[in-house]
Predict the structure.
Amino acid sequence: MPELSRAQVAVYGAVAVAVLLIGARSLRAEGDAAPASAATERFGEALRFGEGGGDVVVHVAGAVRHPGVYRLPGGTRVTDAVERAGGSTARAAVDAVNLAARLADGQQVVIPELGPGGGSSAALAGSGEGPISLGTATVEQLDTIEGIGPVTAGDIIEFRDQHGGLASVEQLDQISGIGPATMEALRDRLQP
């Protein structure tokens, strides 16, 4: 058998690596096309939400059948958290909450109840002295806080929706127009 030159060894080595990579890719593609196993079917819900990174833990409260703290896959939406809590009750004002928003770890999702005359009790609560929930606050409710006008209130709602909710009031300092004095007022009047 003739001796191989260094160039020939390098070429054969590169071909061997390419064949291995193609084979590995082919095997992985076949695995993806395989029928779903029992485990995949059982955890299908988790696979459906596979958009985000790790899990998120959220507190679902208010007008839901089973309020509590739930662990959900990253990328999950508010509507999925409500479903996980048994769904909304007959007295729920689900239109007062952005069900399409992505959940953030540590977020509280509050589904308000319908108030007298069919209005949301969250709107009624916003006129009181208690803290307003960041998860359900409306522009009108935020506008009642000293230092927040309708434009900044709209910016807060937009920021909340873009980030899938807010885990803490401190996240609001990322919004233009909210300075240290406004942050103090927000800490007193808002809850996550």
